[in-house]
Write a structure and sequence with these properties.
Layout (H helix, E strand, L loop, with lengths): L1 E5 L3 E5 L1 E4 L3 E4 L2 E4 L5 E3 L10 H6 L9 E3 L11 H7 L4 E4 L1 H8 L9 E3 L5 E3 L4 E5 L11 E4 L4 E5 L9 H6 L7 H15 L8 H14 L3 E4 L5 E2 L2 H8 L13 H9 L12
Parallel strand pairs: 6-7, 7-8, 8-9, 13-14
Antiparallel strand pairs: 1-2, 2-5, 3-4, 5-6, 10-11, 11-12, 12-13, 14-15
Length: 273
């Protein structure tokens, strides 16, 4: 995992996964350096990742007071239980549904769970975090937040987009990507991650985008996009196009077999004896 600071209050813990046919998908977690430090999501659960080690370079886990889980998919919960052990004072911010989903895998310490719904807020000592439901999401437990002190919007999967390389996905800047390429990546991801939006009432969907305009965020921190600064309006305009998309359809078994055949070693050439 990479680590870099964006603005004065946020550290990005960057990672990436290669998705065949799509590109390198960022998988970020974040540290909000509030008076009561907040960890936002906890990375991948793959065996070669060490989330706690990466996190420790940004904040002492023992100082973490809040773990804001934007939703309980496995690319967000990889280091969760290790962090709960290493951060004994931290409480887990999620929803009733999110807690239920996670409890199917492993029991949660319910005395440390803090249930928070969109429209509510959380006091973290020197600022108040306003919870909201992002316009695009793949899990009904999704809750992002806006920090008006740092003008940072934490949008979970919304605004995501795969990048051309692992380096740009894990440690790049969204504003450094050419506008057309970023727009294409964002729309492709919306069609993959939120295929339901093609069935949504357009006006009702756009009404869910309006609060993001009102936030006037300087920074957008999406789990699946490099950190973005100064391009929020452009990201929002692209998200407004999502209802026009055709839902993504992945490869079928025949395509998979063709792909696997390409990985098979070539037969050894016969030798004369």
């Amino acid at each position: 995992m990479s680590q870099h600071k964006v603005g004065s209050d946020v550290t990005v813990l960057g990672d990436a996964l290669e998705v065949p046919g799509i590109g390198f998908l960022p998988v970020n977690a974040f540290v909000l350096h509030a008076r009561e430090p907040v960890v936002v999501d906890t990375g991948l659960g793959l065996p070669d990742r060490n989330f706690l080690e990466a996190l420790s370079s940004a904040v002492d886990p023992a100082d973490v007071r809040w773990i804001w889980l934007t939703h309980p998919d496995r690319d967000h919960t990889g280091g969760l239980f290790a962090l709960l052990e290493a951060a004994p004072r931290a409480r887990l911010v999620t929803t009733f549904m999110g807690a239920g989903i996670m409890s199917c895998e492993r029991p949660l310490p319910m005395d440390r769970v803090f249930l928070l719904n969109p429209g509510q807020s959380l006091d973290v000592g020197d600022r108040t975090l306003a919870a909201f439901r992002p316009p695009l999401f793949d899990n009904p437990a999704t809750v992002g937040f806006y920090d008006d002190r740092s003008r940072a919007c934490f949008s979970s999967d919304c605004f995501g987009g795969a990048m051309a390389s692992a380096e740009s996905a894990a440690g790049g800047e969204a504003e450094a990507v050419d506008a057309q390429g970023l727009r294409a990546a964002q729309l492709l991801w919306a069609s993959v991650d939120s295929p339901w939006v093609a069935l949504a009432d357009r006006d009702k969907y756009l009404a869910t985008v309006a609060p993001l305009r009102e936030m006037d965020a300087e920074y957008v921190f999406s789990t699946h996009l490099p950190a973005a600064s100064g391009i929020t309006a452009r990201l929002i305009e692209t998200a407004c196009l999502a209802p026009e998309l055709t839902p993504f359809v992945g490869p079928d078994q025949e395509a998979l077999e063709q792909l696997l055949a390409g990985f098979e070693p070539a037969a050894a050439a016969p030798t004369d004896r």
